[in-house]
Amino acid sequence: MRSSTSTRSWATALVAAAAVAATTTVGVTPHASYSSSIGVLGCKVNTNRIAYWPMDVDCNNICVSLSYGGRQVYLLRIDQSGGAHDVSYDAWNYLITGKSATADPTAGGSIDMETENVDASKCAGLISTSGSKLPLSAANSMNFLNSCLVQQAAGNESWVAANYVLYNILDPICTYGYNEVCTLTDWPDQNQATCPHQLGDPVALTSQPVYNIEYPTGEKVLAGAPASAATTTTPNTANAAANHACRSMFQCQSLLFWVLSMGAIMHSFLGSL
Ligand SMILES: *[C@@H]1O[C@H](CO)[C@@H](O)[C@H](O)[C@H]1NC(C)=O
């Protein structure tokens, strides 16, 4: 009896250790402005459920689970932070209070929470494209997508390579381009997608708004619109809602995208001469 009991508790302890090994505890801070270093289009994902982790975004670990106080959310890990574990303000607020940041906005700093990488399918509900494919910018996500396609071509697992869709939208907050799907037909010979309109044409796009939830007011604001008085005040917590100025190429948007696009247009124009 004694020995079978101790065998069982030993087995239980092993199972518990395995479960613990998969999760890690991280200090989580709120993030107010949507961004994506790999060019995921905010108009086609739930920008209230994004993880901004310190490590590089990769082609497989796109979805993480985050738990605190008996509550749990899935988050798309599609941007890199400057060192903190940031999450969308709404997700942070929900985990702490059980309520959306728009309903009951809370302020504060880093809170220890449990996280683990989970299968990308768990984040399907956060993506609004057909088949929940990851929506990428045809003009500006090619470096990342190419790295994932190379992985797949080498016979390695690459969730992104098998589950992406390109749009002729230039920036993650969806303010330039056309809301149309593009295809990459001749990769790797050609690294440029084909779109119904010219690839990277920087026309104003107003039909695909992206909203942020302002910290700490909980107010819903159009991304890319001039900052209100609340966001121009520096929050008192280290990473809270910081507008990490130009942390990635996609955060120096508008002007940079326009410059890149004009460069691409001039390039193809000169190439056609
Ligand atoms: C494929 O996986 C192997 C083994 O992990 C690794 O050494 C190699 O660099 C990978 N190749 C690519 C192109 O990702």
UniProtKB/TrEMBL annotation:
Bilayer-spanning residue ranges:
255-272
Q: In the record, which residues are listed under signal peptide?
A: 1-25
- Record's superkingdom? Eukaryota
What InterPro entries does this protein map onto? RlpA-like_sf
Per UniProt, the keywords (alphabetical) are: Membrane, Signal, Transmembrane, Transmembrane helix
Gene3D superfamilies attached to this UniProt entry: RlpA-like domain
Q: What is this protein called?
A: Cerato-platanin
Q: Give the lineage.
A: Eukaryota, Fungi, Dikarya, Ascomycota, Pezizomycotina
